[in-house]
Amino acid sequence: MANKKALIEATALLIATASVVHSTNKAPPKVEAMSKVCTFSEAMKAVSSYAARLSSERLKAAISLSNLQDQLEATVTENEGTSDIKTVLLIQYLEKSSKDLLSASADATTSGIHAAAVCANLAGRVEEFVHLFYQMHNNAANSCIHKGGGRQHTDLACMATDTALKELTTQATDAPKPDVGGLYKAIAASGAALTGGGIDTCKIMDGQAGSNTYLDNHGGPKPLKFGHGMLTVTTDNSDITGANWEPNGKDDISKGAYKACGQALTDLATTETAETTKALAQAATKLLEDGEPQMQKIEIAKNAIHAGLPAEKVEYSTDELKTLHAALKAYRKDSIKQHKSMVLAHHQHIQATMKLNRTACDLGLKNPKPCEASDTTTDSQKKAEKECKTANDDKEACDKLEAQGCAFNEQDKKCELKKEVKEKVKKGSQETVNSKTTNTTGSNSFVINKTPLLLAVLLF
């Protein structure tokens, strides 16, 4: 009897143990499902490139339209204001179109930044979930992405290596609008791929109470969300099914956990440049080329400029545009020629100035003193007085210097220059300025040599 009781208890323990093992680990997500999730997250990351492309296209179109407008106006000016009505209408249409693009640019740029930020944020949450589950593959007993034969990082579009996710990159060219909504629905359409694969080896989904995990039962199953709700599991022993995945029963991204990205992308798409403006910008680019581009006709719809203008649709045939292109090309060629002439004239002016300065420098070398200023009256008089002073109070010595204009002053008992000689010295100094320019702005007369003066004039 005791043996039978022990057998029953042992059997009950085995059943309980098996139940615990089943409930503490779950069958891992299949690689097919995770691949769809990665493709979806990459599409959300691509919103930044789409936003950049729209912004770049808008700016390039506005520049092309504005440049063509300027050149057409210049050709009309050169023709003394004469032009046909179709050219005038085209100028007005170009101006309105470029202004419309620029006026909408601020709001459109804001929409682009918002969409890129929202979608990249959600993509980051999803990819961290993928990365976390991918890393949980230490051995066969702990695997969170199931694939027959073993999973590889190349199976997942968002993985760059076995240990790293792909970085977000932004490019403004060839970036189509990402199909975020369609790829969201594709996850739900995965069908059987959404069920768990293999055996219960994904310990990161272990949530049983008392099993030493980060989330305990606490009295009942509680949802555990990964990747902003991309995968929701509970702490009970239920297996993963399609009901655990986003989108479960939702037919549109606007109804699920990623509706913020879907709405931001929808708003951004409304800022796309209108097809008519794109066509006009393409035609403007061709008209601005110097080769022989293939022209396509331009149409201006009724009331496109403003109410009543034009009164009806206006078309520019390819032949008309070829004629216009030839006129614009001739204008550009002539403008380049005028520009070259201006550059040549400026170059010649610089050369002439340099030659003039060289001549001035040569003259300056012949007279190295740049500006010689002297009081000639004072210098001559001092020289004569110095000779008289050599006799001092010696009358006989002073008499010998009579030829130099000296005379002995009996009253002061000294040899000094005669008064009449002083007058002659002063007069002689004034007569020496015949080859010099005199400045009499002060009490004395200063002379400046003409050669340095010429040098100063040539240089300044």
Polypeptide structure, described:
With 460 residues, the chain is mainly alpha-helical. The protein has three domains: 247 residues, Variant Surface Glycoprotein, subunit A domain 1 (Variant Surface Glycoprotein, Chain A domain 1), CATH 3.90.150.10; 83 residues; 84 residues, no CATH class. The chain is 53% helix and 8% strand. It contains twelve helices and ten strands. Strands 1-2 form a two-stranded antiparallel ribbon. It has a two-stranded antiparallel sheet with strand order 3-4. Strands 5-6 form a two-stranded antiparallel sheet. The longest helix is centred in the N-terminal third of the chain and has 51 residues. The chain is elongated and about 145 Å long. The C terminus is likely disordered.
